[in-house]
TrEMBL record:
Keywords: Oxidoreductase
Annotated ranges, domain Nitroreductase: 25-76, 80-164
Region (Disordered): 173-194
Name of the protein in question: NAD(P)H-flavin oxidoreductase
Classification of source organism: Bacteria, Pseudomonadati, Pseudomonadota, Gammaproteobacteria, Pseudomonadales
Length: 194
């Protein structure tokens, strides 16, 4: 299913090279969402996209713990207050968790968080293909999330993600609405070092 795009963001401050696909350069993380049900098979498609991300030794150390209709408010309470103000209208909330040791040999996996980042990007791009938006959040109650999810010492909570259909900035409180636009990127020369 494709979800209708309710917004028209201004990407004029983003100047990607002509060979960069627009679905990369026009990906952004809105805070304004309109509560919309996401079909179960679409939820599976989103997280199946994450499953195909590359990882060290193909270990796939990530897990996505995703809210349901019955526990959405519990997930929401695990976000910092500033994120709760806007994330309450997302369709789904999830927490990204990594396993800290390799499955194959039990040794520490120093690349687990890097690999989870690749999976999160795959999820985010798949969401855009479906007309959905994602917003990653560091502002979560990490220890409380770990306790709520009953994680053992071999797992670490990385971040939260809000997923849904984007709404107009005017749906947000004024202090948040004024920031609701795609952010510019650093010049290529700042990240490409030769």
């Amino acid at each position: 299913m494709s979800y209708p795009d309710k917004i028209s963001p201004d990407f004029s401050q983003r100047n990607a090279l002509s060979g960069v696909d627009s679905w990369l350069s026009e990906r952004w993380s809105p805070r304004s969402f309109v509560k919309t049900a996401i079909a179960d098979n679409d939820v599976e498609t989103l997280f199946d996209a994450a499953r195909w991300a590359p990882s060290c030794f193909n270990d796939q150390p990530w897990q996505f713990h995703v809210s349901t209709d019955t526990n959405f408010d519990e997930y929401l309470d695990l976000l910092m207050e500033g994120n709760q103000a806007w994330a309450k209208n997302a369709s789904l909330l999830c927490f990204v968790v990594v396993r800290k040791q390799f499955d194959q040999n039990g040794k520490p996996n120093p690349y687990a968080e890097f690999d989870a980042g690749a999976a999160w990007m795959a999820l985010s791009l798949q969401a855009r293909k479906m007309g959905l938006y994602t917003h990653g959040m560091g502002g979560i109650k990490h220890d409380e999330v770990a306790s709520y999810l009953k994680l053992d010492d071999n797992h670490k909570v990385i971040c939260g993600i809000a997923i849904g259909v984007a709404d107009e900035p005017s749906a947000l409180p004024d202090d948040i609405a004024k920031r609701e636009k795609p952010s510019p990127r650093k010049p290529l020369a700042d990240v490409l070092i030769r």
